[in-house]
Amino acid sequence: MASKKQFNYQWRLFIPVVGMMWLTIGVLMIYQYRQQINYRISTIESNIDFINSRIINAYENEIDLIPFINFLSSYFDNSLYDAMSISVFDRTGKLIYSIGTPVIQDFSETQQMAEFKNAELFGSGRDKRSSGENMFYFTVRKSDDGEIYVHTAIPYTMSISDAISAESDFWVILVSMAIVVTIISFYSTRYLSRNVVLLSKFVSMAEKQSATIDESKFPHDELGDISRQIVKLYREKDEAVLKSEKEHQIALYALEEKSKIKRQLTNNINHELKTPIGVIKGYIETIISSPDMDESTRNHFLQRTQENIERLCTLLNDVSTMTRLEEASSNIPVTDVNFHDLVYSIESDLDASGLNGNMKFSYDIPLNCVVKGNYNLLNGMVSNLIKNSAKHSRGTEIELKLVIESKKYYTFSFRDNGVGVEPQHLPHLFERFYRIDAGRTRKAGGTGLGLPIVKNTVEALGGTISVHNRSTGGLEFLFTLEKWRQ
Q1: Helix H segments across 290-400?
Q2: What is the pLDDT of residues 128-165, one digit of tens each?
Q3: 162, 170, 201, 451: least buried by Cβ within 10 Å?
Q4: Distances from the Cα of 390 to the Cαs of 178, 239, 359, 396, 437, in angstroms?
Q5: What's the whole-model pTM score?
Q6: Average pLDDT over residues 180-205
């Protein structure tokens, strides 16, 4: 089910922040607005109280009130207090003098206005009335001797309304502050949400297996550092998964190859075993079914049977050696082997063993050439090389010599002066049971495992081996053996 469309994280952060800022500004501005209005009203009230006080002060100083009040009236012409009315009453409520529309006042207790009641009690009083009357403010001041009352009223005119209203600058400031706060909030939330937006983009790409993002875009702060670390951990995890999958594929391929090699080896072994077993069976059946066979023929058959039995034993021994080298090479015991002494021993036994056939064997190895190896395996390796040349090279000479000595390895050359092999066969010489039709058929004998055993022996001991045709004729094997170090 598709997920519902959500607001961008920046907007979800921006809206509450800017809302709180607007609310704060609104509360502060309303408070300031009321304070300003109250201050202006208080100023008007103070001025009216001041007028009343001056009239009472003139009365107490026995100044004629009529000219004084006329002076006040002319003084406030064309001002905020232009429509102001002033009425002077005696203690009985009789109107003595007035400017503007006089106020009719009944001094009876039930009809007395609120401001007069307060003046009776406290010496001065004030009131605001708007219902049914066109007055904004009323104030009364009683003289100390209680003989006169000064009543002042100001109607709620446009001038008064403008005077107590907020100036246009107030609203300009309010709107300007709201705009500034909105801009600051937008860019602040944009900066704060940048990590989340980039991480969200990275996650979306990661779901599509294309998680590539420029880490430098993350801000250089704590959140940016955490975001970069998250991206780094994801990439390391992704690389680890890819590496694991690759290693798994390699392991599967290796298992398949190993299984394939085992099947090929089994098939080749079965094929190789059929020949000597078939020959042995044929000769024995012939001898049993022919009791009158002459002795020379019987001896010939028995000799051929013995040769195939020896060939069968050699094949089984070679298969056992190959299995040991391939499956348990890490368990092969190694020690120091004097390679000169080993080759000298093989050369001394050549006349008795006949490994070299009719070929002359020579070697050039220093007396102190000590290698890391296994004596029996190295003995078999050199013997197999000599046997291979004797059977297949059709040459007259075999030579083994040390050609290069490095800090860690000895490099040896084993070569003959035979016919060599065609180039297309060189890459296959170390394959099991590989034979070349020209000059290397079963007629020459052998199990087809001699050179593979040589290669596996060298590699099991940590060395390498290669083969090529010599320019002067014959094959040359170059192999390395690790020096013995205590």
Answers
A1: 295-327, 339-348, 350-353, 375-392
A2: 765 445 567 788 888 888 888 888 888 877 777 777 77
A3: 162
A4: 103, 54, 6, 9, 17
A5: 0.44
A6: 75
